[in-house]
Amino acid sequence: MLVRMSEMKRNVWLLSGCQALMNSGNSLLIATSALVGFQLSPDKSLATLPLALQYFTSMLTTIPASFLMKAIGRRGGFVVGTLFGLAGAGLAATGIVVGNFVYFCLAAALIGAFNGFGMYYRFAAADTATPDYKSRAISFVVAGGVVAAVVGPNLANWTRDWLSGIEFAGSYLSLLGIYGLSLVTLLFVRIPAPTVAQAHAHGRPLAVVARQPAFIVALAAGALGYGVMALVMTATPLAMHQHAHAFADTAFVIEWHLIGMFAPSFFTGHLIRRFGTLNVMLAGVAFSIGSVAMGLAGTAVAHFWVALTLLGVGWNFLFVGATALLTETYTETEKAKTEALNNFAVFTAITLSNLSAGALQHHFGWRTVNVGVLPLIAVILGALLWLRARRAAAAAVSPAE
Questions:
Q1: CA distances from 373 to 224, 229, 292, 353 (A)
Q2: N or C: which end of the chain has fewer CB within 10 A?
Q3: How far is CA 337 from CA 198, 200, 203, in A?
Q4: pLDDT digits over 153-188, tens only?
Q5: Structural domains in the chain plus CATH codes
Q6: Tens of pLDDT along 95-133?
């Protein structure tokens, strides 16, 4: 058992490292992609199109990635995904150097395919975890993003002028090193390959799994919570640029947003075990509402800083909670299709958010961006209260039976 526990925790920390590297690349993209898009695109309202394409490709990749992993194993799937990331980083740098918006969009799509595979890091950790360690395993893998919070935006700032006169090309060249290190890390991950029986088993029909109240709420909270975060986060660099804030200030705000997203993961799993999944997710809703309130309060750097930090914490509680809730709804044989549907829905929400963020910010401004996410937050709140009421009613009836 000691050997098993040691191997389990080793896998969790290696996968956390992979998550950190993937998110370092993502945070660099978040800090720079809209600005590069603004420079390269002839239509400035399409500045966030590359980021939207990144998430759109992630959405398209989630389903085949899940079934590929079912066939060849988690590690093999992650290696395939990382190769997409390396190709994307090289093409992005090329696109910036030659001033080609289409190249940059295609590069973002390739990186999106990598992220579609990488979204399964947290589920891979849950696969090898004992039941009492599962929520913490998920949380610790997500916590790998703390490194990204510091590395990504600062790396973008430090490398933006590596190539003289070609802003941000060096930032995307640095991604080659990040993704290469991720490939090396995967060599040390030890996750058992699926057996022949597991690769061909199906379990309950997906429609049956998806009708469970817990699945419905996990899907709604995970997808809409990510959508809210993505919309506000993607619009932030453009909004700060519009209000004449320096790029260094934008990098600072994105850095703290990412700290808010990932630093709570060191204790989110513990909070879930102590207070319950739904209560932690409700706290995430409260932080999200606080973010909107601060976003509407003003446009100084301090307003952006606090709003984006609160947004990050709210996302963390919702995302980790939704992932833990989702793992309660399926068996081993149902894992691939259930996780695929969940991640497809999450990336659909992210893609729509990124497609709309640039246009909303360009045509209507920062206030509309913040007001626009309130209905989505309201839906998440209603879903959580509905499931909590159902569970309370079931608990009240159970003793009488």
A1: 9, 9, 8, 10
A2: C
A3: 13, 12, 10
A4: 778 878 888 887 888 899 999 999 999 999 999 999
A5: 2-190+204-395 (1.20.1250.20)
A6: 999 999 999 999 999 999 999 999 889 888 888 777 778
